[in-house]
Amino acid sequence: MFDFANSRPHRPEEPVGERRRFRTIWISDFHLGTRGCNADMLIDFLDHVDSDIMYLVGDIVDGWQLKKRFYWPAAHNDVIWRLMKRARRGTRMIYIPGNHDEMFRQFAGLDFGGIRIRRKAVHETADGRRLLVLHGDEFDAITLSHRWLAHVGDAAYTALMTLNRAVSAVRRRFGMPYWSLSKHAKAKVKNAVAFISRFEEIVAEAAGSRGVDGVVCGHIHTAEMRDIAGVAYYNDGDWVEGCTALVEHFDGSMEILHWGDEIARREAAPVAALAA
Ligand SMILES: [Mn+2]
Hints:
Number of domains: 1
CATH superfamily: Metallo-dependent phosphatases
Number of strands: 12
Order of helices and strands: EHEHHEEEEEHHHHEEEEEH
Bound molecules: manganese (II) ion
């Protein structure tokens, strides 16, 4: 086992002092162990924010892809290192494994380096709302009953992600901000839109029947926050396409951070100051 506690990251951590602070951060669907994982943006995110509580809402490591082909660059270790470091600094860390990292579900109830592994959790917001936190594949009928079909979808998805990376690389070369091809492709495909809204309704309905005020999940790689029949539905998105996080401010209000936009804003700020 790699000793994260006594190692240094490949890329040094940026100073902790000036980070934006939140009460809670939810992030999921990193898919570490795949080329699709946007580890650079994730590292940038982790180095610029801090919180009292952090939920890792599943599909952190992609065991399915790793089994097919081992891929683990230094940046992926750096992500794990930063998560472990956070736990040691005192952030209350809760890890809820998803379907791609389901091998960790057997450890639900245990603590690993200060990170609590749970099947699901109930989070209480600063304004007293109770939110059920789970990955979300529990409601994905395709994943449950036709596992092979989910793998076919997985292959098509991997192909789209390869294309997405090529577009991103070209855009970066021309100094254009991060833009997700796959995110926009998905928004255009009627079936995908129908699937997403159906998923959101099912999850919200299930949460409502459990008597909580809302639900936080990941899984479908589509960040969202909306009211569905009186239940607050939150999805923290992913770090493959959208590069998004869900955060709770200290007054209990919630926000989705689009990290590509945040980086663009940060990099534009000195230029704007210069122009003024
Ligand atoms: Mn998933």
